[in-house]
Amino acid sequence: MEKLTAPEEQAMQAVWKIGEAHVKLFLEQIKEPKPPYTTLASTIKNLEKKGYLSSRLVGNTYLYQPAISAAEYKKKFMNGVVQNYFANSYKELVNFFVEQKKISAEELQEIITMIEGKNNNQ
Question: What positions belong to coiled-coil segments (predicted)?
């Protein structure tokens, strides 16, 4: 699975939010500054070629839908980030957020509680 470019990710966020639709509806979901319609249409076509979207012709309009879920992409993307930037260590990832003051001690405790809860349910 190829990593998405920023415009492709922006388009996929709109697709995941709506589900099946045509390019104009996806464009309405994108925050300002919006890309031109033709740019988004090209991005959508590229996403289809890469296997992220599928399409069907209804009348004279193509409807596009995700071929991969947001959860699947997130899993692949995060695995790649951890592998490429944090020596394949989730501990290093968490430490990065602690050092950047992006996660508090309370949030870390919540994460520990979640992990312990899942371990007890197994």
Answer: none
